Amino acid sequence: MKHAFVGIGSNLGDRRKNCVEAVERLKEVRGCELIQCSRWYLTSPVGMQDQNRFVNGVARLDVKISARELLDRLLSIEAAMGRVRSEKWGPRIMDLDVLLYGTDILEEADLKIPHPEMHRRRFVLVPLAEVAPDVIHPVLNKRVFELLEELEEDDQEVTLLD
User: Fold this and answer.
1) Is the sign of the CA dihedral 150, 90, 113, 129 positive or negative?
2) Ramachandran angles phi, psi of 130, nearest 5°
3) Structural domains of the chain, ranges and CATH numbers in brackets
4) Among 83, 82, 125, 94, which residue's Cα sits nearest to residue 26?
5) What is the DSSP-derived secondary structure letter of residue 137?
6) Which of 54, 76, 57, 55 is nearest to 5 (CA)?
7) β-strands 158-160, 95-101: how paired?
8) Cβ atoms within 10 Å, residue 139
């Protein structure tokens, strides 16, 4: 069994409700056990700025399935929730990303673990630090809280929702 961390985000419709629904669907994935979910954060979009702000969080799972199977299940949840992939960094009802999968390092066409941008994204690091501050990034060999502390000042707004 391995620990896996999944980034959760939505910026269409009832964003918080969408994120909560995604967590409920994660609980139903065979071979995965939800251990913890961060609180929800209102965050500014990255990449394409002219869109709604996101609600983001991170789920910590114990998994008995492969990283590939986990990705396939996440893509199925996104599709079932109405995700349409039309443009990179565009608006989406649900976005689920494998951030970390144990200490594994994978470099495949459509699956890169650890997530290649996670250490640059405040909207990932803040909720990840909430649930796993001492987990070590297997490539950078730094704890999550260190990555967050080292993140340069930027305009990535991350605000805790009530």
Assistant:
1) positive
2) -70, -40
3) 2-160 (3.30.70.560)
4) 94
5) P
6) 57
7) unpaired
8) 12
Task: Give residue 105's identity as a one-letter amino acid code.
Answer: I
Residue type, 37: C
Residue 40 near residue 123 (C-beta atoms within 8 A): no
- Measured CA to CA, the distance from residue 143 to residue 19 in angstroms comes to 26
Looking up tokens 């995965």, which residue turns up? 32
- Nearest one of 22, 19, 35 to 80, comparing CA atoms: 22
pTM: 0.95
**Alpha carbon distance 141, 22 (integer Å):** 30
- Please write the tens of the pLDDT for every residue from 29-81: 999 999 999 999 999 988 777 788 999 999 999 999 999 999 999 999 999 99
Q: Give 125's contacts (C-beta < 8 A, 6+ positions apart).
A: 118, 119, 144, 147, 148, 151
Pairing of strands 54-63, 32-37: antiparallel
Length of the chain, in residues: 162
Q: What is the spatial distance between Cα 34 and Cα 101, in angstroms, rounded to a whole number?
A: 14
Q: 1 exposed, middle or buried (CB, 10 Å; 0-12, 13-18, 19+)?
A: exposed
